[in-house]
Specification:
Elements: H1 10-20, E1 24-25, E2 27-32, E3 38-43, E4 46-50, E5 55-60, H2 74-82, E6 84-88, H3 95-101, H4 111-114, E7 119-120, E8 129-130, E9 135-148, E10 151-163, E11 168-170, E12 175-176, H5 178-181, E13 184-186, E14 193-195, H6 207-213
Antiparallel strand pairs: 1-13, 2-3, 2-6, 4-5, 5-10, 6-9, 7-8, 9-10, 11-12, 13-14
Amino acid sequence: MLFDFEALSPDNRYKLLTATVVPRPIAWITSLDPAGRLNAAPFSFFNALVGDPPIVGIGIGGRHAGREAGRWKDSAANIRARGEFVVNLVPYALREQMNVTAIEFEAAVDEVAEAGLATVASTRVAPPRLADSPVALECERFIILEVAVDRTIVLGRVVAMHVRDDAVLDAARCHIDTPKLDLIGRMHGRGWYARSSDRFEMPRIPVAGWTRRT
């Protein structure tokens, strides 16, 4: 079945992308507005894009509810204004708290407080990180692409990373016990997620090894 994206509505294009590009890791972004108020919100159009320089990318849509419909979400506005943010990764244990921060509250509402989350100071950037997130990436704004009046793509340069101590196998060699992080990702529809605990191993094949096999 061919789906011609030029002939589809934005809603249908969104449904096709989110139903097939799965699972998507979740960027649980903490940021500060110009007045220093904390904001937290999750975004699943997210991934690590480049290793050197270390760049992550997040697609941030616009607000859809109430009087604020059609304007930038607070995370995008804060990153544009202050140039710093933290990407906290989401473990299964914090799935419900993450879902609370996805509610489209008014800008003055503290999502972190609503979700009952604790924060700790970051090392290189002003926004704090979420204390119970097993991984936090401190980021500086690299590029913001305005792809529509209320939609942005944020590229952030990672300047520091925090990993929960019990998930670090060998700090000197930067070896991490990834399964222990128990991260979740977005799947299809409005409410489906996946856990990273279901996995299989398949080592890459070197050219010499393929030649022997064929």
